[in-house]
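4.2 Preliminary Data

To establish feasibility before requesting continued support, the project team ran the inverse folding procedure on a target of 464 residues. The structure was first converted into the token representation described in Section 3, and no sequence information of any kind was made available to the design step. The complete token record follows.
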């Protein structure tokens, strides 16, 4: 414990967390206000009558509607305050809470990038990133400090390593390493380049199967190696240039918002603190490390922080592994897919019908999904068993309010990476009266086919 305490609580220059705080605040503003300007908030939170929340967060539904415009304006303002270092602790805490609520309010547009932002913001709540180059220091000069504890830096490195390694492991399946997924994904991007920019050469490159295969393998190698290469002094510069090219390429071709720039901002923690100080804060007085080896045992506070860090890291390792403890292929069942860094791995499309049987009259009725769901919600729900179950519960509640006791049966078919469509849900199971097994496999999800048939042509697929 003593050696670990010496390592975690060694004092280092705080240039990294100061610079990252500024980058983070700017990116938060861009993400939140950009979500309004691009229509994302309208599509996700204003247009839907209800959203598919994470389990336990159904209470957030009261925020839906025009309120969410103001909500995201406020989140953007908090990003500005974070960048300026004004009321930093309160601003960071409020944003972490606000972003977490928005994130947990809906699963239709689930995104690992939003999840990473949530985690990083909660980490930043506990890190003193406002003790230099901040308006808080201007208000309270006594809080100015040139150093921070080493664990502030190490936690970000550990989070990045977990993210990239498990993202690489998830890619080791035929749909990825054969280039099948990226060929489909790049095909959609090629259409955009051809229609919006009239950039024929780029469109042709993206439609090339060999190009998709090469990029697929580059993606696996990049995810496995980028953090170790950034940490090693001899390969650091080359690795950062490679990361810069990789993320800018993804930004242009995949159009995935702030994530490429967010990932680049996080990479500064892989550099020595002194290098970041010289590059971004040349006027900052260097913090000189002195003999910091404690002669006594770690304090209670240090022990508590060490325990909290250990629990957090173990939990972050468990989440991407948990699908191995659930029967079935996560690619098919989706059980254990979220919060696991399974980023942009496959395309899925589905057809789904909900049939209602009135238990008193025996009358059967096909549900018109257009009355309840937006286009994106319909497309996303069909391939996600938890969302199918949630919608069945929503229908049950709606009909119960009208004095009707109903049974709900679902007919669903799923296609993966352009394959043929296969039966997905047991159509004889009444989902209105089935409980969700939070830590187990749902036995009403049918088994996947032994082999997916050759991809069909002309199908519209949804990216997950």
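Position-by-position output of the design step:
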């Amino acid at each position: 414990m003593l050696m670990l305490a010496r390592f975690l609580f060694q004092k280092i220059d705080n240039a990294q967390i100061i610079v990252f705080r500024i980058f983070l605040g700017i990116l938060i503003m861009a993400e939140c206000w950009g979500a309004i300007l691009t229509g994302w908030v309208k599509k996700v939170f204003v247009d839907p009558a209800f959203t598919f929340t994470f389990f336990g967060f159904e209470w957030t539904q009261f925020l839906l509607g025009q309120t969410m415009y103001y909500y995201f304006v406020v989140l953007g303002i908090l990003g500005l305050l974070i960048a300026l270092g004004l009321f930093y602790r309160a601003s960071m805490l409020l944003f972490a809470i606000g972003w977490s609520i928005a994130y947990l309010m809906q699963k239709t547009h689930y995104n690992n990038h939003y999840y990473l932002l949530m985690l990083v913001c909660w980490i930043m709540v506990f890190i003193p990133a406002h003790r230099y180059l901040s308006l808080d220091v201007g208000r309270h000069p006594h809080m100015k400090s040139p150093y921070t504890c080493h664990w502030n830096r190490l936690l970000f490195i550990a989070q990045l390593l977990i993210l990239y390694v498990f993202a690489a492991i998830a890619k080791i399946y035929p749909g990825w390493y054969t280039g099948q997924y990226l060929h489909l994904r790049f095909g959609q991007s090629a259409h955009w380049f051809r229609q919006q920019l009239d950039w024929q050469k780029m469109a042709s490159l993206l439609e090339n199967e060999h190009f998709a295969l090469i990029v697929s393998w580059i993606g696996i190698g990049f995810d496995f190696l980028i953090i170790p290469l950034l940490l090693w002094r001899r390969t650091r510069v080359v690795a950062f240039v490679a990361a810069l090219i990789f993320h800018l390429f993804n930004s242009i071709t995949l159009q995935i918002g702030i994530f490429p720039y967010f990932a680049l901002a996080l990479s500064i923690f892989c550099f020595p603190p002194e290098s970041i100080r010289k590059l971004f804060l040349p006027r900052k007085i260097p913090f000189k490390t002195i003999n910091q080896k404690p002669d006594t045992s770690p304090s209670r506070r240090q022990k508590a922080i060490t325990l909290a860090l250990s629990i957090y890291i173990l939990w972050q390792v468990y989440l991407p592994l948990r699908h191995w403890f659930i029967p079935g292929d996560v690619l098919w069942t989706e059980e254990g897919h979220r919060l696991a860094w399974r980023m942009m791995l496959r395309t899925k499309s589905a057809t789904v019908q909900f049939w209602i049987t009135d238990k008193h009259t025996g009358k059967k009725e096909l549900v018109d999904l257009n009355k309840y769901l937006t286009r994106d919600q319909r497309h996303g729900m069909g391939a996600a068993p938890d969302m199918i179950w949630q919608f069945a519960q929503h229908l049950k509640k709606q009909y119960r309010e009208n004095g009707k006791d109903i049974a709900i049966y679902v007919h669903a078919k799923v296609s993966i990476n352009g394959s043929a469509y296969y039966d997905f849900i047991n159509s004889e199971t009444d989902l209105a009266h089935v409980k969700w097994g939070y830590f187990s496999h749902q036995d009403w999800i049918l088994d996947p086919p032994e082999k997916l048939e050759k991809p069909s042509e002309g199908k519209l697929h949804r990216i997950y």
